[in-house]
Amino acid sequence: MSKETLFYVRLREQASLKNKSMNQVERELGYPRNSLNNYKNGTEPSGERLLELADYFMVSPHYLMGKREIDEGASLKERFQALNFEQKGELCSICQSWVASQLFKNH
């Protein structure tokens, strides 16, 4: 079994964040059924399709192609949702420490 491309993994992640199946994404964009599956094993999208998918998911094409680790255009909520459980806990702890420091700073 071949390994999925980073592009395909990111497509699936973005579809999941939108609570959509890959087939739903294809239908909404007017693509033939299973056309996104072509990217699973290394086929690269055309420039036009890359831009359509980036616009649809509201991420940068560079992020989808794996040229950037994070999407600079992602909202804070989207970035938070992308974290794993341990990362979310660490972020919560950081926020609590910051809030406490701000309360004591002002009093």
Summarize the structure in words:
- This protein has 107 residues and is mainly α.
- The protein is built from six helices and no strands.
- The chain is elongated, with a radius of gyration of 18 Å.
- The chain starts with 5 loop residues before the first helix and ends with a helix.
- 14% of the residues are buried.
Q: What's the gist of this structure?
A:
The chain is mainly alpha-helical and 107 residues long. The chain contains six helices and no strands. The radius of gyration is 18 Å and the shape is elongated.
Helix content: 55-70%
Number of DSSP helical runs: 6
Class of secondary structure makeup: mainly alpha
Question: What proportion strand?
Answer: under 5%
Mean pLDDT: 86
Ranges with pLDDT <50 over ≥5 residues? none
Distance between the termini: 61 Å
What's the β-strand tally?
A: 0
Major beta-sheet overview: none
Radius of gyration from the alpha-carbon trace, in angstroms? 18 Å
State the assembly state of the protein chains.
Answer: single chain
Shape: elongated
Q: How are the secondary structure elements laid out?
A:
Blueprint: H1 6-17, H2 22-29, H3 47-57, H4 61-65, H5 76-82, H6 85-105
